[in-house]
Specification:
Number of strands: 9
Distance between the termini: 44 Å
Number of domains: 4
Helix content: 55-70%
Oligomer: single chain
Length: 726
């Protein structure tokens, strides 16, 4: 559930009013707060309820970053930056980009479930508090971050009434409170002194067994059960589920028996972490064999998963797929798995338990292999069909499963010799990271893509196709990050290696990527020669996607080299190769962007320039490509200044400014010819409007786009309304 948290959001919380009041006071005084408590006690729910309550205190709102699916601590800054909508586009580290962004923001940053990446969370929190004076960090963890200035906020179990307390329903035994009634929680809480645990059980039991109520006759059993479970919310919720099949008295007797065995009959002998574990084990034993098996196998997923994913990964053979469906229904009914629309998710504590069972079963390697295979197949389809009409559907599918892409690469690329490292896993990991070349680019996750390709190079140290392909792909990503010297070195080394081992398709892409780096370095003649070599090789391999990307690069080379007519012709060639009505977005929009650049340099083609840039702008907004939008808006600003619309020019130049900032880019990557056009347009508009009016219009564009950026940090479409010419 990562993302911006709605101010009126979180209400699924029983009791905790005292805790919420104390948390509000703490957040008003401290900029680093860690909510600590045992697993299952409700730390995340308290954090979210507190965030909803305090939302209006933060201009830029509360944001939650869910970390339970993150396994590699080095990717923590990338994860937080991605949730905030910051692309890892350029050479700055994700941490630097994140701190630069937060420095000007006033928000509450919630780092949820930190205990497995504790040191990384502590380092990040310390850096944020030091660098961003108006940002408050709220962490949830089973243990404190252990750093200076940290305020520890402990969340304990829910209070349970003493035996013999007044019971719900006593005041009105004929019409006891109905837990399904929205007013029931307050009524129950009022009748049971310190009875939040009983209230929670009543609500969950009524959901599991419609018609169930806590009455004078059964309240003693309910209190005994809640006391046995130490008031731990997750344990209570799990214990309520079997009521659809077991009478309350029998349910309590079975649980009493299990605790008696473990504590040798001494009440309270189990510490709370064992209480929760005992409740989970008890729930596990109430599951059917198929449900237990599925519980264990589902633990390989990071974050959410679909029914289709569960069937594919958790069935060893196709005949098991109907069993997976039925078992998943059972686990949802028992609250082991949560359903969120068409997606499913397992709580971190329950996933940990399942992972232990999976490791003990001897099925970990085979289950991970199926997990890797599923996400590799998705990546390969996207990579091979990158420029097909369904490009955006496949891209959004990958974005939805990003935590599982990470998990698959981590499983596959773990160091050789790990006990659960499946056969050929490393080769699959290399293929996965490389097949995502277009995904890393569209999603603006260039830094993360570079990171995973580095992991591939760490695993494959000898010459071979995996190493050659990882090198040329890393060079491609580095060129867009502005790390041009290293990008060229990667491309040259990978291409030479591919030629030596006869990997023609890899060599063809190597030449394509090398041409781009030479263009960015301003070595235009060399780039043109390499382009000819690349195109011949790409055609020989039937690599249409590579050829299309090469055409966009070649068109950009022509316009930078002051050959605008050749640039427009190459763009038209690329659009013709894509075909009329193509649903491909990424290359198409860049062909329109580059065509607009070139047309601007051709006198009398202003109308064509405007049309090309607006087509590009529409497509880039649908993609959420902030740098592409910045290019289009900036050049539209040049055009407005030239055609006598200085107010619109000022707005457009101002609108592009926060986009360059968000992308972490120097405007136009520092390309001199384009920066000159920008400065000329700004000077023309400033002269026509006067300094004050120009500043007002410029600031209006900046403010409008910054507001829209903050509202669209999920990476979705970013639609702007350009003011009419004046």
């Amino acid at each position: 559930m990562s993302g911006r948290f709605p101010p009126d959001g979180y209400t699924d919380l029983v009791g905790r009013q005292d805790e919420l009041a104390r948390l509000a006071a703490v957040l008003a005084e401290s900029r680093l707060v860690t909510i600590v408590g045992p697993g299952g006690v409700g730390k995340t729910r308290v954090a979210l309820a507190g965030a909803a309550q305090a939302a209006t205190s933060y201009r830029d709102g509360p944001w939650i970053v869910e970390l339970s699916g993150l396994r590699d601590p080095e990717l923590l800054p990338n994860t937080v930056a991605s949730v905030l909508g910051l692309p890892s586009q350029y050479a700055r580290s994700a941490l630097t980009a994140l701190l630069d962004y937060l420095r000007e923001r006033e928000l509450l940053l919630i780092l949820d479930t930190c205990e497995h990446v504790l040191d990384a969370c502590a380092s990040l929190a310390q850096a944020v508090v030091a660098s961003a004076p108006s940002v408050t960090v709220l962490a949830t963890s089973r243990q404190q971050l252990d750093m200076a200035g940290e305020h520890i906020f402990t969340v304990g179990p829910l209070p349970v009434p003493e035996a013999g307390s007044p019971a719900p329903g006593v005041a009105d035994p004929v019409h006891p409170a109905d837990p399904a009634d929205p007013a029931a929680p307050a009524a129950l809480a009022g009748r049971v002194d310190g009875g939040d645990a009983v209230e929670l059980f009543a609500l969950r039991a009524a959901a599991a067994a419609p018609g169930f109520t806590v009455t004078a006759e059964n309240v003693a059993d309910v209190i005994r059960l809640c006391r046995r479970l130490d008031g731990i919310p997750l344990a209570i919720e799990l214990a309520a589920m079997p009521l659809r099949t077991l009478p309350l008295a029998e349910l309590v007797a079975r649980l009493d028996h299990r605790f008696a065995l473990l504590s040798t009959g001494r009440p309270g002998a189990l510490p709370r972490h064992k209480t929760l574990r005992t409740a989970i084990e008890w729930s596990y034993e109430l599951c059917s064999a198929a449900e237990r098996r599925l519980w264990a196998r589902l633990s390989v997923f990071a974050g959410r998963f679909s029914l289709n994913a569960a069937e594919e990964v958790c069935a060893e053979v196709a005949l098991e797929r109907p069993d997976v469906v039925n078992a998943l229904i059972g686990l949802v009914d028992k609250s082991v798995v949560l359903r969120e629309g068409e997606q499913y998710q397992m709580l971190d504590t329950l996933r940990e338990f399942g992972a232990e069972r999976l490791a003990a079963s001897g099925e970990l390697a085979s289950c991970r292999s199926r997990h890797i295979a599923r996400y590799l197949a998705m990546a390969e389809r996207f990579g091979v069909h990158f420029t097909d009409d369904d490009q955006m559907d496949r891209y959004r599918e990958l974005r939805d499963v990003h935590p599982n892409l990470r998990a698959a690469m981590e499983y596959a690329l773990e160091p050789a010799g790990e006990p659960h490292h499946g056969p050929l896993a490393a080769a699959a990991g290399a293929e996965l990271a490389c097949s995502l070349y277009g995904y890393w680019q569209i999603s603006c996750l260039l830094g993360e893509g570079t990171y995973w390709l580095g992991k591939v190079l760490d695993r494959f140290t000898e010459a071979g196709p995996e190493r050659a392909r990882a090198l040329v792909n890393r060079g491609f990503l580095r060129s867009f990050q502005g790390n041009i010297t290293d990008a060229l070195a990667d491309c040259e080394a990978g291409t030479a290696m591919a030629l030596a081992i006869g990997a023609d398709a890899i060599a063809a892409r190597g030449y394509q990527h090398m041409m781009l780096t030479l263009t960015f370095l301003g070595r235009h003649e060399e780039a043109a020669k390499v382009s000819d070599e690349a195109r011949g090789r790409l055609r020989a391999c039937g690599d249409v996607a590579g050829e299309l990307m090469l055409l966009a690069q070649l068109a950009h080379l022509h316009q930078l080299a002051a050959r605008p007519a050749e640039s427009v012709a190459v763009c038209e060639e690329g659009l013709a190769l894509l075909g009329a009505g193509s649903g491909e977005q990424w290359v198409t929009t860049y062909l329109h962007v580059v065509s607009g650049f070139a047309l601007f340099q051709m006198p009398g083609r202003e109308a064509d320039c405007d049309a090309a840039l607006r087509r590009a702008l529409y497509g880039k907004q649908e993609l959420g490509d902030v740098i592409g939008i910045a290019y289009a808006l900036d050049v539209l600003g040049w055009l407005s200044a030239r055609t006598g619309s200085p107010a619109q020019a000022a707005w457009l130049l101002g609108a592009a400014d926060p986009l360059w900032e968000r992308g972490g880019s120097v405007r136009f990557s520092g390309t001199a010819i384009m920066e000159d056009f920008h400065q000329q347009a700004a000077a023309t508009a400033r002269s026509a409007l006067g300094e004050a009016e120009y500043g007002t219009r410029y600031a209006a564009g900046t403010a409008d786009v910054r507001r829209r950026l903050d509202a669209h940090a999920d990476g979705g479409p970013l639609r702007l309304e350009i003011p009419e010419s004046r």
